[in-house]
Design brief:
By secondary structure, this protein is mostly helical. The protein has two domains: 40 residues; 49 residues. Helix content is 87%, strand content 0%. The chain has three helices and no strands. Keywords: Coiled coil, Extracellular matrix, Secreted, Signal, Sulfation. It is found in: Secreted, Extracellular space, Extracellular matrix. This is Unique cartilage matrix-associated protein. InterPro entries: UCMA (IPR031386).
Length: 122
């Protein structure tokens, strides 16, 4: 082996070793970051239990909240009703157009069959 080959081989092996070490350190840092994320997302069991207990003892809704929810439900019902009415009207118009087209094509067919017996000019 020449010095050139030895130098290239040692340089390549050093590069591979450094990249492996870098991957190991980033992987270890990633595990620490995931532990921090878990702690931020999930709360302790005791905290969750206290939260649920407090929600159970919460006071009933005020009349304003009840009225606001009622108005929202009425508005949603009205919008739903308008949507379905519009859909029904569009379908009725479509059916009417189809029937008109069918009647027109039947009339043309009748005229053509009558013209077959007689000499008609349009």
């Amino acid at each position: 082996m020449t010095w050139r080959q030895v130098f290239l081989l040692s340089g390549f092996s050093a590069l591979v070793l450094m990249s492996m070490l870098r991957e190991g350190t980033t992987q270890a840092a990633g595990e620490e970051a995931s532990e921090d994320a878990k702690q931020k997302i999930f709360m302790q069991e005791s905290d969750a239990s206290n939260f649920l207990k407090r929600r159970g003892k919460r006071s009933p809704k005020s009349q304003d909240e009840v009225n606001a929810e009622g108005r929202q439900e009425l508005r949603a019902d009205e919008l739903r009703r308008e949507y379905h009415e519009e859909q029904r009207n569009e379908f009725e118009n479509f059916v009417e157009e189809q029937n008109d087209d069918q009647r027109e094509s039947e009339a043309v067919g009748v005229q053509q069959s009558m013209c077959g017996r007689q000499r008609c000019h349009f």
